[in-house]
Amino acid sequence: MTTTVLIADGEPVLRAGLTELLASQPDFAVVGEATNTNDAVDEARARHPDIALVALNLPGGGGLDTAGRIRKISPSTRLIVMVPPRHVPGLTGDADAVVSYATRADQMLSRIRATRLVHPRVNASPDPLGPDTRRPPALTPREAQVCALLARAYSNREIQMALGIRNSAVKRHVRRILFKLGAHNRIEVAIQVARSGALQQEGGQS
What are the distances in angstroms from CA 7 to CA 34, 106, 128, 175? Predict the structure, then answer.
């Protein structure tokens, strides 16, 4: 059974990352994207997706208002509101589930599937014990530069050219960034950068 999904998020990088993540799974099909509340409602009215992933801070009304409007025109659509990593999870309004952008890719997929199959509302925090409030390890200034370019979907070659460093150095920095942020891939890095703002840096450039 294929689950159809609408993604409503004002951040192009996040929409692209979520689309890529879902496209990698045989049981998901992204049938629409929206950058604001009105577009999300229009897409939901036209497509009646199984799942709507809606950003909490969606331009034009916010995720909760958008979820309420989608509920009225497409009652069968399960509504998942995506929240920043430091947001305290809680089920509000018409959301069937709340999922943090800090949630690992495999956990996010599992929770989307659970929301589709199980009617009771689900609270999907990054960790079974609640939101992770630990600060991530500091990045060096160079790692922060590489991280910012990763969030803009730069390839290793493009990062090499932009920063004037060797490809081997780029690969080393990427490995360190993934380890320090607890990310599994570049998509998860982009999500953390977009939702967490400036990253903590440590002194010295490597």
Answer: 6, 18, 25, 29
What pLDDT does 133 receive?
40
**Sequence-distant (≥ 6) Cβ neighbours of residue 141 within 8 angstroms:** 201, 204, 205
Q: Which residue positions in the chain have pLDDT lower than 70?
A: 85-93, 117-137, 153, 191-206
Distance CA 82, CA 54 (A): 6
DSSP codes, 93-105: TT-SEEEETTS-H
| Burial class of 203 by CB neighbour count within 10 A (0 to 12, 13 to 18, 19+) | exposed
Q: Structural domain tally of the chain?
A: 2
105 shares a domain with 12: yes
The count of residues in the chain is 206
